[in-house]
Amino acid sequence: MKVAVLTGGGDCPGLNAVIRAIVRRASEHGFEMMGLRDGWKGLLDDNHFRLTRETTSGILHRGGTILGTSRVNPFKVENGLERVKRAIERNGIHAVIAIGGEGTLSAATRMSQEGLRIVGVPKTIDNDLNGTDFTFGFDTAVGIATEAVDRLHSTAESHKRVIVCEVMGRHVGWIATYAGIAGGADVILVPEIPADLEAVAQHLQRRNAGGRTFSIVVVAEGTRIKMSAEQGEQLVTTGALDEAGRPRLGGVGNIVAQEIERRTGFETRVSVLGHIQRGGAPTAHDRVLATRFGVHACDMVARGEFGKMAALRGNEIVSEHLSEATRELKRVPKEFFEVAQVFFG
Ligand code: F6P
């Protein structure tokens, strides 16, 4: 039985660990594995290669994806679905394992509704996918962002400055909340709660008046800012669109830093972490989660459990309907901010 695997969307640490796990388990099931290059594009262009134990050995700890990735969505390409169906038939592919985030898994959901045999694996540093408690890649990104916040602390303290650290996460604040709590940030700004910059400035002034001469502000890239309590919210984008046609986020850190300096007179700097959060080796936690997802996804193919994805519930790996992943964004619950706020004084 031939099974194809693809990685789509933004890369994240742990993708290679999933691929390796799928291929290892596949050899126990007697599947022949095929790697599709650059996400769904691999099916559209009929571009693939054979995956074996040998070609997937030594990749567990490596960042990125040996398959390559893209945000190409077959449903937005002329005759995309027909081309995918033809490639599947021509190559005798029994099932496709799609490893991806929001975009890839929504396409996977539609493909499965069209009758194709699809199994999903959720991935993203943003941890915004519904239907799974965590995605792999998130723990690595949080570790990197936390280390950055730790490092910013010492230099902010020496210079008695405010430092604003902008982290990724798209429209949710998981990375900001975790790295902010773990790194002891003095303010955490997230998309779930519009940020009133006047309130932030007043808070920093109160800290300063209490003898705390430096502050760390963690801001998620998707945070909507308000110049005052009365004014409307503004999402900061680069003005450009990504491959999937979505606005590219970024730049909110600069605005927050400028406004803090203007309103408080405190010297303020900004540090934008960007793709550093996505590159490099996965943490041990992400390698284990990715490996468990990979083995489970392969077993799902063996059981004929299609239209579902591997998911984490508590500490168990379960099968969840693909449509659940993108039904709604998994936002950070309020309790997390309440915990963080205890330390904002
Ligand atoms: O979804 C992962 C992510 O890193 C987001 O946090 C970020 O907004 C986006 O991808 C950046 O994408 P790109 O690689 O296209 O710049």
UniProtKB/TrEMBL annotation:
GO annotation, cellular component aspect: 6-phosphofructokinase complex
Keywords per UniProt: ATP-binding, Cytoplasm, Glycolysis, Kinase, Magnesium, Metal-binding, Nucleotide-binding, Transferase
Site positions (Important for substrate specificity): G103
NCBIfam families the record matches: PFK_mixed, PRK03202.1
Protein's UniProt name: ATP-dependent 6-phosphofructokinase
Short name of any one Pfam family annotated for the protein: PFK
Cofactors named for this entry: Mg(2+)
Pathway recorded for this protein: Carbohydrate degradation; glycolysis; D-glyceraldehyde 3-phosphate and glycerone phosphate from D-glucose: step 3/4
Subunit structure: Homodimer or homotetramer.
Active site location: D126 (proton acceptor)
Gene3D superfamilies membership: 3.40.50.450, Phosphofructokinase domain
Keyword Transferase found: yes
Coiled-coil region list: none
Organism from which the protein derives: Corallococcus llansteffanensis
Entry binding sites for Mg(2+): E102
Summary of the function given for this chain in its UniProt record: Catalyzes the phosphorylation of D-fructose 6-phosphate to fructose 1,6-bisphosphate by ATP, the first committing step of glycolysis.
One record GO biological process: canonical glycolysis
Compartment(s) of residence: Cytoplasm
Gene: pfkA
InterPro entries from the UniProt entry: ATP_PFK, ATP_PFK_prok-type, Phosphofructokinase_CS, Phosphofructokinase_dom, Phosphofructokinase_III, PKF_sf
EC number: 2.7.1.11
Sites where the protein binds substrate: T124, I125, D126, R161, M168, G169, R170, E221, R269, H275, I276, Q277, R278
One function term, GO molecular function aspect: identical protein binding
Catalysed reactions listed for this entry: beta-D-fructose 6-phosphate + ATP = beta-D-fructose 1,6-bisphosphate + ADP + H(+)
